[in-house]
Amino acid sequence: MSVPRILFVVPGLLAGLLIPTLLASPKAPPTAAVGMAGTDFTRSSVTIHRGDRLTLVNDSTVVHVIGPGLDTRVVSPERGVPMYGFHLMQTNAVFTTGRWMTPGTFYLTCTVHPGMNLKVVVIR
To answer: Structure pTM?
Structure first.
């Protein structure tokens, strides 16, 4: 009797996501970066100047999948947001966006945690 491959693939994928997170201890993010605490960003909003980059640091023990959008819905590409698709962020992962060139208000969200949104305000 043959065992379906899915019985090996799914546990392998879950282990690949969870084991590194369980073994790592979070480090504090740099002062200019936006951290993640549990199932939320450490700040609800951030104001940056036109041309700046934004650094996100997962300083929690929870896996996050971050992308442009709101309330777990990634919208990519989104006009004015220099971040495309979504980014898997395990414990201590760091992601720096491209330069924010369009003034306005934008949002980043986590596709895993409802309500985990970051408001990004870009000023001149």
So the answer is: 0.76
